[in-house]
């Protein structure tokens, strides 16, 4: 699987976990040169608190397009150490 934004592969892995229709990639597959820190946080009633990264590709920003759960609930333990994408990031084979 690949996560692609603006024609650039942001992450690529054959090891994704699908939760609620989202592919969670190993965090190690994330190409860090396109990622920047974000203070944004949201809460999921069953997964816990999500943290975010923003993307920067060829001078274009995509704020909070990557999310992860640093300390997911026990019910969501399978996504620890993984990231997922939204906001126009295409996940494809």
Describe, in plain words, how this protein is organized in 3D.
The protein has no helices and nine strands. The relative contact order is 0.28. The protein is mainly β. The protein is globular and about 40 Å long. A hairpin with a 2-residue loop joins strand 1 (2-5) and strand 2 (8-12). The termini are close together. The model has no long low-confidence stretch (mean pLDDT 97). Strands 3-4-8-7-6-5 form a six-stranded antiparallel beta sheet, with no helix packed on it.
Summarize the structure.
This protein has 93 residues and is mostly beta strands. It has strands at 2-5, 8-12, 17-19, 22-26, 35-44, 48-57, 60-68, 82-85, 90-92.
State the strand order across the main sheet.
3-4-8-7-6-5
What general form does the structure show? globular
Q: Hey, roughly how much beta strand do the residues contain?
A: over 45%
Distance between the termini: 4 Å
Over all CA atoms, what is the radius of gyration? 12 Å
Helical percentage? under 10%
Order of helices and strands: EEEEEEEEE
Number of strands: 9
Main β sheet profile: 6 strands, antiparallel
Q: Please mark out the parts with pLDDT under 50 across 5 or more consecutive residues, or reply none.
A: none
Q: Tally the helices.
A: 0
What does the average pLDDT come to? 97
Structural class: mainly beta
Topology:
Blueprint: E1 2-5, E2 8-12, E3 17-19, E4 22-26, E5 35-44, E6 48-57, E7 60-68, E8 82-85, E9 90-92
Antiparallel strand pairs: 1-2, 1-9, 3-4, 4-8, 5-6, 6-7, 7-8
